[in-house]
UniProtKB/TrEMBL annotation, chain A:
GO molecular function: carboxy-lyase activity; magnesium ion binding; thiamine pyrophosphate binding
Keyword vocabulary terms for this entry: Decarboxylase, Lyase, Pyruvate
Entry-linked InterPro entries: THDP-binding, Thiamin_PyroP_enz_TPP-bd_dom, TPP_dependent_decarboxylase
Ranges in a coiled coil: none
Protein name (Swiss-Prot/TrEMBL): Sulfopyruvate decarboxylase
TrEMBL record, chain B:
SUPFAM superfamilies attached to this UniProt entry: Thiamin diphosphate-binding fold (THDP-binding)
Name assigned to this protein: Thiamine pyrophosphate-binding protein
Ranges of residues in domain Thiamine pyrophosphate enzyme TPP-binding: 41-158
PANTHER family named among the record's database cross-references: SULFOPYRUVATE DECARBOXYLASE, SULFOPYRUVATE DECARBOXYLASE SUBUNIT ALPHA
Keyword terms: Decarboxylase, Lyase
GO MF term (any one): carboxy-lyase activity
Top-level taxon of origin: Bacteria
């Protein structure tokens, strides 16, 4: 991930009012995590699985602060149970920023399931999402996701793919 | 030890704290045992993310005492949260685990604590939550609550309770959405913040 893309993500998060980032690190976003850790305006919370991160983000929402869950798109599968319970059961939203593993161009066999399952799972959860492959669109995508989630009180997701993460 | 008696004791100690809880019968018991805390409690029906949500709330409101009322089945669903608490060391989070050694809400099948080999407090300590204790009597539980509420480190109490739902209690009628709105409005009012604000006119 280029430093300009990392900067765009952090600019978007700050513009959206995010002060807490829960993450489980992955390889495509590997430059993003240390940059988030180093940012004095953001508290990062590494988690043991993405579902735990979703739960923590839900709790941060209830405090009036804003959080985001950053992960590889495989983490969506680990998050489905708390996302369904919190989102569909109580209307507690989580905004997710995912790396798009397994899209066309993927050259790792183990990442293929991530690409095949991501969009159908988002659709099954009725989570609106945007796939962003243009660095210039990152910032607006993040702020749009937060605007929507704080109007709908439901989850939304941004997947960064293409040359942004390769 | 009866969970309802423990809840009554805990409730007597609470005034302006915030509580997140689950699951099954413990929801109705807390609703009755601590009626003054109803608006300050987020009633959930979830397995595995109650303490995570409570931790997130504690992160967002570091000046406010937050209490997670978790269960043996719920905590076993994601033991990783203990490692996260061990690393993050929240100063304002008390976690109480109602350990009745069964999935009571579905009729009482055993959880992994039933065989007597799995020690949730020991797992918490080994995860970096040094203040983690097991209570087997009401007096022990009450004393641990006093210490845990005053602590400035993450604190876990595993309360060994029986599997008998308190008879004759009133069922809570609201669902997760109504509970969330009640809780959020309480946080907004007591913290002077806006969480779910007015819609834009544009």
């Amino acid at each position: 991930m280029k430093s300009t893309a990392v900067d765009a993500v952090i600019r978007g998060l700050k513009k959206a009012g995010v002060t807490v980032v829960c993450y489980l690190p992955d390889s495509l976003f590997k430059e993003l995590y240390p940059a988030l850790d180093a940012d004095p305006d953001i508290r990062t919370i590494p988690v043991t699985n993405e579902g735990e991160g979703a739960a923590i983000c839900g709790g941060v929402f209830l405090s009036g602060k804003r959080a985001v869950l950053v992960m590889e798109n495989s983490g969506l599968r680990a998050s489905v149970e708390p996302l369904a319970r919190m989102g569909l059961g109580a209307g507690i939203p989580v905004v997710m920023l995912m790396s798009y593993r397994g899209e066309l161009g993927e050259n790792n066999w183990w990442a293929i399931p991530h690409g095949i399952t991501m969009e159908p799972m988002l659709d099954a959860l009725r989570v609106p999402y945007r796939v962003v492959r243009d660095e210039d669109a990152i910032e607006e995508a993040i702020t749009d996701a937060f605007s929507w989630s704080y109007a709908a009180y439901y989850h939304s997701a941004i997947a960064l793919g293409g040359s942004i993460v390769r | 030890m009866k969970r309802y008696d423990c809840m009554t004791k805990l409730g007597e100690r609470l005034t302006d704290e915030l509580v997140i809880l689950s699951l099954g019968g413990s929801v109705d018991e807390w609703y009755n045992a601590a009626p003054h805390m109803r608006a300050a409690s987020l009633f959930q029906q979830q397995l595995g993310c109650v303490t995570g949500e409570a931790f997130g709330l504690a992160v967002g409101l570091p000046h406010r005492q937050v209490i997670s009322l978790d269960t043996d089945g719920g905590l076993l669903f994601n033991l990783g949260i203990l490692a996260t608490l061990g690393n993050e060391q929240p100063e304002n989070l008390l976690t109480i685990v109602w350990d009745n050694q069964m999935y009571l809400s579905i009729g009482g099948p055993r959880t992994h604590t039933a065989a007597g080999r799995v020690d949730l407090a020991a797992i918490a300590r080994a995860s970096g939550v040094e203040k983690a204790f097991t209570a087997t009597t009401l007096e022990e539980f009450d004393a641990l609550c006093a210490e845990g509420l005053a602590a400035s480190v993450p604190y876990v109490i595993v309360a060994k309770v029986d599997g008998v739902l308190q008879p004759g209690i009133k069922r809570k009628h609201s669902d997760g959405r109504e509970d969330k709105y009640i809780f959020v409005r309480h946080v907004e009012e007591t913290e002077g913040v806006v969480i779910m604000g007015p819609s834009e006119h544009n």
